Structures are given as C-alpha cells and as structure tokens.
C-alpha cells in the first residue's frame, strides 16, 4: 500500500501550516499572518520513529460563509479527510475555544477517521495543560498542547498518531517520476492537474493567483507512478508584492528544481510570451526534462495547417528548448491529455541515460569528419581529443580539447546538434564541458595543493 495520509484540519489562522512544517521533512508550507493563504490541499512527506506518512495541509474551514474561495476550500478539506488514515484537528490555545471549533468538531465526530486534537500556540510548557483543558468539551478525546513553532508536545502527539497508521512493513516504495506543472497565471495548470487525477484536486478559478502553494498529487499510469506538482503562476518579479504570491512563486521555483520533468504550460490564445521564454530558460538552466504543453487548443479556430503554424511559432520563440516535445491539448475537454505522460516517460528516461565513451567518440569522429573545427587567423585550429559522459540528470559530456577558446558558439552548437542527431536525448537538456590543457593543469595543481594541505 502507498504511504498513509494524515489530514491537518482546523479553522483559519490557527497555525495549521506551521504544524505541517513542524511535522514535514520539507518544512516549506507557506506561513503568513493572513486568513486564506492555504487554499488547496498540499501534501508533504513526514516520518516519526519507524513510520513514514504524508501530511496534507488544508485551508481554514468555515461552514457558514460561501464568499470567494471558502466553498472550494471546504471541498478540498473534505476530500483530504476522505483519503486519510487519521486527522489532526488544530485549534488555537491562545484564543481559546471558539464556536467555529465546535462546528468543526461536530462534523469530525460524524466521520469514520480517527481524530487527534492538537492545541497549538502553547509555547509555554507550564501553561500548556491549562490552555488545553478548555478543549475537552469538544468530545474528541485528550487535547495535546503543542507549539508548531518550537515543537513542544509534538512528540507525544506523534506517538499517539502512529498507533492509527499501518505498520512500516506494509508500505511499498515506488520509483516515482516527479513532474512539475509550471507556467504563467491562468494558463490552465490546475485544470491540467485535475484532468490527470480525474477529480477537483486543485481549485480552478479565473482569478489570477488562485493557486499559491506547490500541490503534490501521486497518480498511477500503467506500471509507473508519477508525483504531479501543481505550482503557483509565475509573473514578472516587478509585478509581485511581498506576501503569499511571493512565497508561492518561490515554491514554484523549488518545485521545478526538485522535478525530473517540467510541463511548461502555455496559453494557445496568448501564444509564447516573454515570461514563457524566461520560464523555459529557467527550466533549461536547472537541467530539467521538459514537455511544452500548449493548452486551450479547443478555443483556437483551426484549419488543416493551424497546428503546424502554431508549432513553428512555438519553436521559433522557444528555440533554446528545441529538444523538448510539444503537445497541443485541452485540459478542459481532456483532448490529448493522456498522451502527455508518454512524453514524460521519454524525457525522464533520456535525462538519466548514460552513453558509453566509445559511442560518444564515434559521434565526435563523424562530426569532425563532416565539419572540421574552426581555424584562427594565426593558423591555430581547434582539436578534439576525445569525449566522455561524466554525469546524468541532465546528461553531461566532457570534451577534452587543445584550447576551448578556439571553439566558437556556432561550432559548439554544431557538436551538440550532432550528439542529438545521433543519440537522441529527446526531452532533456545536455551539458557540454570543453576542457583544455590549461584547465586540466589548473585542476591538477589545485588537487595537489589540497592533498598537501590535508596531509599537513
């Protein structure tokens, strides 16, 4: 069975995200002193003693208000509870027992999930028991006084929690592919995640900035497991004020960094914007696999040439990611969505691919035979002695040459193009390191100095 899930439930501003950060190994849930910062349900890995599990952060529950996002937040919290092995109900010890706490407790008592009561903001151990005493009346068993900030009392809470989780030997590990869904605001990232999952996993709204955190969801397709990560829309830095959106964009960049493959979502109606170009450049710089997903294709008026014209426009604007596959989809109707994961598989496989030194040198020999390295006015010509792959994710190849300065950008692009033509590497960037005699001599001297210092 997969990792068990523990839902964190409570009204707004009781410190749920702070508690999630305390329990989670990632500790990156957005914490900001403003109600409604957390909207979707966000999953974070956690462990205690011999148990691994996932904590799912949820938005603040309000039952008697249907304004803005509150109905969607309720829907997300209920969905989180339905898939959980246990729940932690977080209340505010400093504020005391509130009528909304009683409403939530009444609802939780009607569920079939074991519920633990965590009285947060009990920073003082001496006052913790007194602050927690008021919450016995909720009828959810013993209230545990804790501090999400300092960690006081969380050990006792977790000791009780793991009694409700399955034994460690029943949990199966999976070799999952991490897929970040990134793009500008309102290009359909959350709709795409929901299309993959087949349920309302992320709140979809025409309001820009609806998604604020990086939202993980594990899905199975055939024999392969995927961790899909929906991210906040990334706008230009100068347009972003300090606050929830600022933190959300930072989480989006972190999601790109921890992903194996990035789905770069582009609005078919807007075309490729300057911000899309910057995001594509960031994905390439981070060395992540990429699939370019052109969404809202159903809204485009088409003839038999439209898709080819659009693909050429996308390729021209994103020429520095020409190695990435492009797919035209509609997250709203589901058109071609199922084909995206096949492209993800290819990109993930190519990103971790290793090629033998003999094959690399065969490609180099053929490439140099067709197009010799450039010669300077002084008659100096570049020479490539040999190449070898030094790492993967992304594939990196070191080329040993007489002098890297003798190889201009055009020739370097030519060599990369020959590697792609002969070896593929579809869906992933590749790194070429041009290493000359001087470079190797500096590295040798540096290594010798380091050895002498260590011996001394």
From TrEMBL:
InterPro entries: AAA+_ATPase, G_ENGA, GTP-bd, GTPase_Der, KH_dom-like, KH_dom-like_a/b, P-loop_NTPase, Small_GTP-bd
Domain of life: Bacteria
PROSITE patterns: G_ENGA (PS51712)
Annotated residues for binding of GTP 1: 10-17, 57-61, 120-123
Binding site for GTP 2: 183-190, 230-234, 295-298
Residue stretches making up the EngA-type G domain: 4-169, 177-352
CDD domains reported in the protein's UniProt record: EngA1 (cd01894), EngA2 (cd01895)
Keyword Nucleotide-binding in record: yes
UniProt-listed SMART domains: AAA
Molecular function GO labels: GTP binding; ribosome binding
Pfam family name, one: MMR_HSR1
Gene Ontology process terms (BP): ribosome biogenesis
SUPFAM superfamilies per UniProt: P-loop containing nucleoside triphosphate hydrolases
Keyword terms: GTP-binding, Nucleotide-binding, Repeat, Ribosome biogenesis
Subunit architecture: Associates with the 50S ribosomal subunit.
UniProt family annotation: Belongs to the TRAFAC class TrmE-Era-EngA-EngB-Septin-like GTPase superfamily. EngA (Der) GTPase family.
Function per UniProt: GTPase that plays an essential role in the late steps of ribosome biogenesis.
Name of the protein described by the UniProt record: GTPase Der
Provenance organism: Stenomitos frigidus ULC18
Organism placement in taxonomy: Bacteria, Bacillati, Cyanobacteriota, Cyanophyceae, Leptolyngbyales
Gene: der
């Amino acid at each position: 069975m997969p990792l068990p899930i523990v839902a964190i439930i409570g009204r707004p501003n009781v410190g749920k995200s702070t508690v999630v950060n305390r329990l989670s190994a990632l500790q990156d849930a957005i914490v900001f002193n403003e109600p409604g910062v957390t909207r979707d349900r966000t999953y974070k890995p956690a462990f205690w003693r011999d148990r691994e599990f996932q904590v799912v952060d949820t938005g603040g529950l309000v039952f008697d208000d249907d304004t803005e996002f509150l109905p969607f937040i309720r829907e997300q919290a209920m969905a989180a509870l339905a898939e959980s092995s246990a729940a932690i109900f977080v209340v505010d010890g400093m504020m005391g027992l509130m009528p909304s706490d009683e409403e939530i407790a009444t609802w939780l008592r009607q569920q079939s999930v074991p519920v633990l009561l965590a009285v947060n903001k009990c920073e003082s151990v001496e006052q913790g028991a007194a602050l927690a005493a008021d919450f016995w009346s909720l009828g959810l068993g013993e209230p545990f006084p804790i501090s999400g900030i300092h960690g006081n009392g969380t050990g006792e809470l977790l000791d009780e929690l793991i009694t409700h989780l399955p034994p460690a030997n029943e949990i199966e590990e999976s070799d999952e592919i991490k897929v970040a869904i990134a793009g500008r605001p309102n290009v359909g990232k959350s709709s795409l995640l929901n299309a993959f999952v087949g349920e309302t996993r992320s709140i979809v709204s025409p309001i820009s900035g609806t998604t604020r955190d990086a939202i993980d969801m594990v899905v199975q397709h055939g024999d392969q497991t995927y961790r899909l990560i929906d991210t906040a829309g990334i706008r230009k830095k100068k347009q972003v004020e300090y606050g929830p959106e600022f933190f959300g964009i930072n989480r989006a960049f972190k999601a790109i960094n921890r992903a194996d493959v990035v789905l770069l979502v582009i609005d078919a109606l807007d075309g490729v914007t300057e911000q899309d170009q910057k995001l594509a450049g960031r994905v390439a710089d981070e060395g992540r696999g990429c699939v370019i997903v052109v969404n809202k294709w159903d809204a485009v008026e088409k003839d038999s040439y439209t898709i080819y014209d659009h693909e050429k426009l996308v390729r021209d604007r994103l020429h520095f990611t020409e190695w990435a596959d492009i797919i035209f989809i509609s997250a709203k109707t589901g058109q071609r969505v199922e084909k995206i994961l096949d492209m993800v598989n290819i990109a993930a496989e190519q990103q971790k691919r290793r090629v033998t030194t003999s094959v690399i040198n065969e490609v180099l020999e053929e490439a140099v035979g067709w197009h010799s390295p450039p010669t300077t006015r002084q008659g100096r010509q570049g020479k490539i002695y040999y190449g070898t792959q030094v790492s993967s994710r992304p594939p990196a190849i070191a080329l040993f040459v007489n002098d890297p300065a003798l190889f201009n950008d055009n020739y370097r692009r030519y060599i990369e193009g020959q590697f792609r033509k002969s070896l593929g590497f579809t869906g992933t960037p590749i790194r070429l390191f041009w290493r000359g005699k001087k470079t190797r001599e500096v590295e040798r001297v540096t290594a010798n100095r380091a050895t002498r210092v260590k011996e001394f």
